[in-house]
C-alpha cells in the first residue's frame, strides 16, 4: 500500500503496540482480503442508492480516538464521527463543526460554543459533557489512543463543561493551536466505554454503522436525524482488495463507484482521477555517521537525485524541497527542489575525499516495500545517482515491521551510515506536527538535529498567526540551507478511480478523510 497518513509520535507503549500490529503513521498492516481477479472477488452488490467503495485494506479499527490512522480515518472522520472543529484542506482555515465559535480567554484556556440540537446515533443529545468526556478519553486514558501520541504528545488538556452548550478547555502551557488539535478528537457519547476500545463507535455524523462483517464488508446507513444537510446516498458499502489493478477494474467494470490508492499502472484508464496529496517522499540521512556527517556529502546526495526523472518514470508526484505541502502553516514557497546536478555532486564528494572524509564507506539505503508504488525501483534510481557521484551505496528493502525499527528511536545499533526511504503526510495542517518529531534533536523520528534548529522550532511552536507562519517557514529554510538532514524528493500525487455515475472532487485530505457526503450522483 502507499504510505499514506501522517508520521506520528506515540508513547513507548503505543510504539510497541503499533509495531506489533504494523499500524503506525503511514503504516497499516493490510488486513485486506486479496482477490486475484474481479471475477473471483465477492461482489459488492447493493442497489442504486448505495455508494460502493473499494479500499486497499480493511480498517484495523473504527475506534474514534485512532481516527488519525489513515485506514481508520478515511472511514470514520466526518462520516461516522465528528469533531468540534475541522480544517478545510483547500484553504487551511479552521471551520465550524460541532463547535460554532471558539475564543481564547487566556494564554492557557479557550471557550467553545457548541452546536445545539445535535443528536448521537443512539438518540442521546450532544452536550458539553460529551465533548469533555471525549477529550479526556482521547488524551488521558489507558487505551493508548493514537491521537494522543500524535496530536497532543506532551500537552496536558483539561476540558470542563460550563453548561450544555459551553465548554472550557485549558492546557498546562500556552497552546496557540489547541482548536486545530481538537479537530482530531472525534466526539462520542458519555455511554462509550472510557477504558476500552470500541469496535462500532456511536457518533453524530451523517452515517451510522449498519453492519460490519469482518474480512468481507462494512456498510453504513444514512442517519435520518443528522443535524446538517443529508448526504445524497442512503448508504455506503466498503469492501477491500489488496491489489490496485483489481480495485481499478472493479470501477471500470461497474462493480464499484470509488476505488482509492491506485498507481498509474493499475489500469483505471479514463476513470482515473489524480489529485495532490499531503504526503511527501524523502530520504532521511543519518548525519551522525561518516561520510554523511559531512554536509558536503549530504548536499551531494541532494544534487545526485534526479527528481524530475523519478516523478516522470517511477511514481506520481511533483518535485519538492520541503516536508510539508502548500496549505500547511509553515510551508515556505521560497524553498525550491534541489536541482539535479550530477557534476556538482561529484565535485563535492571529491572535495570531501581530499579532506580525509571516508567516502568509500558503504551507505545502506534502507527502503520499505510498498511505501508507494514502485518503491524498490525508486531506490534503484537513487542508488544509481549516488554511485555516479562517487559514493558506495547498497540497497536493503524491508517489510514494514523491520523498517519501523529504523524509523523510530532508539535506532538499531551497528547499522553504519544509512539513508532511510520515508514518507510524511501532514494532514493536520501545521508544521508543529512535522518539525519537532522529524527535525528536533530529540524527535522520535529524528536522526540528527542542531541547537539552532531546535531553537527555531521552539520559537515557532509558541507563535500564532502570521508570526507562526514566518517562524516555521524560517525553520524550514534553516534546515534546507544549513542543516541538510534530508533529501526531500516529491510531493506525491494520489490516484483514485471514479464511476461516471458519481461526482466527487478529491483534495489533499482524501487519503486520510474521504467524506461520503461530498459524493453526488452525476447529472
Describe this structure in words.
With 523 residues, the protein is an alpha+beta fold. Helix content is 27%, strand content 22%. Strands 1, 8, 9, 10, 11, 12, 13, 14, 15, 16 and 17 form an eleven-stranded mixed β-sheet that branches. The chain is globular, with a radius of gyration of 23 Å. The model is unreliable at 1-41 (pLDDT under 50).
List keywords for this structure.
523 residues; disordered N terminus; four-stranded antiparallel beta sheet; 19 strands; globular; single chain; alpha+beta
Helix content: 25-40%
Shape, per Cα inertia axes: globular
Catalogue the unreliable spans.
1-41
Report the radius of gyration as a whole number of Å.
Answer: 23 Å
Alpha-carbon distance between the two ends: 33 Å
Task: Calculate the mean pLDDT score and round it.
Answer: 90
Question: What order do the helices and strands come in, and which of them pair?
Answer:
Blueprint: H1 12-21, E1 50-55, H2 70-76, E2 85-87, E3 94-96, E4 99-106, E5 109-114, H3 128-139, H4 146-152, E6 157-163, E7 166-171, H5 178-181, E8 207-213, E9 217-222, E10 235-240, H6 244-252, E11 258-259, E12 272-285, H7 295-304, H8 307-313, E13 317-319, H9 342-354, E14 362-368, H10 375-388, E15 392-398, H11 400-407, E16 418-425, H12 432-439, H13 451-462, H14 465-483, E17 486-498, E18 502-503, E19 520-521
Helix pairs in contact: 7-9, 12-13, 13-14
